[in-house]
Design a protein that fits this description.
Radius of gyration: 20 Å
CATH class: Mainly Beta
CATH architecture: Beta Barrel
CATH topology: AttH-like fold
Order of helices and strands: HHEEEEEEEEEEEEEEEEEEEEEEE
Structural class: mainly beta
Number of domains: 1
Distance between the termini: 19 Å
Length: 391
């Protein structure tokens, strides 16, 4: 998720300035007037890099990794009421390390981490999109994350939270509310953990260390309530969790990212992303995973995929985003002429305007899927993230 990486980079530069001030004995709030060059000069560089595959351990890896600078817990889902009114939601928590190594500040206000969270709701019937953003530090219990054999999984920022409801990580409860818009959802166990890329190491560039650790839970049965404009709706459907952590930004070769999560009616799930080069002569970077109905999975790459943009949407805030796609995946490695046993689908936003106008502006929205698999009809829902298109 490049939007997450871009946001984390901005937050990291601000965090560096905060740390410099707290080292000087000044407890400071982040100021929007902070200059980027000043922030970059004060960023601590002692965090670990992602350079080799690791052995994942759960439940610990559901929790924070403070030795790495950037981390996020990313939830999306498509939900319906009993009479088929459709909603999409996003709830994402970002952690950004302020400093690595020893920390000698003793004030209750002192913090080693900064947190931000995004909450968005798509109301398909009324074609409305609501998005909210919060920030805090991991001081005074305002924000944080935890998960261990003795500590139940929890991530929170003020009263927005995701937390295990028992001793196991799942089921978990998601809660967020702002300005009369809210979700209160329970996510249950689905297919299990998917390690994306090379056993969980996901390349984000062509140079050493341009990578993240990346795993997913791609099909989490979900039920609960959505609150909107004084009404409460009972809903059910499927959610998706992405988890990533690293210490590096994107390669300078790439200007943005198109990322797709797809939950298909035949029980398969697909994650696919492409990092776009700055010009036509640059190198795109593809990543993807196909998750079968039984939870087994395999990586895919660009030679198996053809993605064509069918429509565009012009943002009133500036910039033009792709807004409809044809996605073809072949089994024989030839995406230019998919065979009869290939997947051939059209991905369409439920509504066009699902742009988050946050500290980093990006498009993140619920999509519907229709097409064929092995010449048989197939459908589904998912989420798409688009960065690098805003003016």
């Amino acid at each position: 998720m490049v939007a997450a990486i871009c946001l984390a980079i901005v937050m990291a530069t601000l965090a560096g300035a905060v740390y410099a001030l707290t080292r000087a004995g000044v407890e400071a709030e982040v100021s929007a007037s902070l200059s980027l060059p000043d922030a970059l000069r004060t960023t601590d560089a002692g965090f670990k890099s992602v350079t080799a595959p690791r052995q994942f351990a759960f439940p610990e890896d559901h929790g924070p990794h403070p030795d790495y600078a950037l981390e996020w817990w990313y939830f999306t889902g498509n939900l319906d009421t009993h009479d088929s009114r459709h909603f999409g939601y996003e709830l994402t928590f970002f952690r950004v390390g302020i400093t690595s190594g020893e920390f000698d500040r003793t004030s209750d206000w002192a913090a080693r981490q900064m947190y931000t969270a995004h909450f968005a709701l798509t109301d398909v019937q009324d074609e409305d999109f609501y998005a909210f953003e919060r920030y805090s530090r991991d001081a005074l219990g305002l924000a944080g994350a935890a998960s261990s054999p003795t500590t139940p999984f929890r991530v929170w920022l003020e009263d927005w939270s995701v937390a295990a409801t028992g001793d196991d990580t799942l089921p978990m409860r998601l809660y967020a509310a702002s300005a009369g818009v809210g979700i209160d959802l329970t996510l249950r166990d689905g297919k299990g953990v998917v390690l994306n890329g090379e056993g969980g190491l996901s390349r984000k560039g062509f140079s050493h260390g341009e990578a993240s650790y990346y795993y997913s839970l791609t099909r989490l049965p979900t039920d609960g309530t959505i609150t909107l404009n004084g009404q409460t709706f009972a809903v059910s459907g499927l959610s998706w969790l992405d988890r990533e952590w690293s210490s590096t930004q994107l390669s300078t070769e790439h200007e943005g990212w198109d990322w797709f999560s797809m939950q298909l009616s035949d029980g398969r799930d697909i994650m696919y992303g492409v990092l776009r080069p700055h010009d036509v002569n640059g190198r795109a970077l593809h990543l993807g995973t196909v998750i079968e109905t039984d939870g087994s999975y395999a990586s895919i790459d660009g030679k198996h995929i053809r993605l064509d943009v069918l429509d565009w949407w012009e943002s009133p805030n500036g910039g033009t985003y792709p807004s409809r796609w044809r996605f073809r995946m072949s089994d024989d490695g030839s995406a230019s002429d998919p065979s009869g046993d290939s997947l051939d689908i059209v991905i369409t936003p439920y509504i066009s305007d699902q742009e988050l106008d946050t500290i980093v502006r990006y498009w993140e929205g619920a999509v519907r899927i229709e097409g064929t698999s092995a010449s048989e009809p197939i459908s589904g829902s998912g989420y798409v993230e688009l960065t690098g298109y805003a003016d």
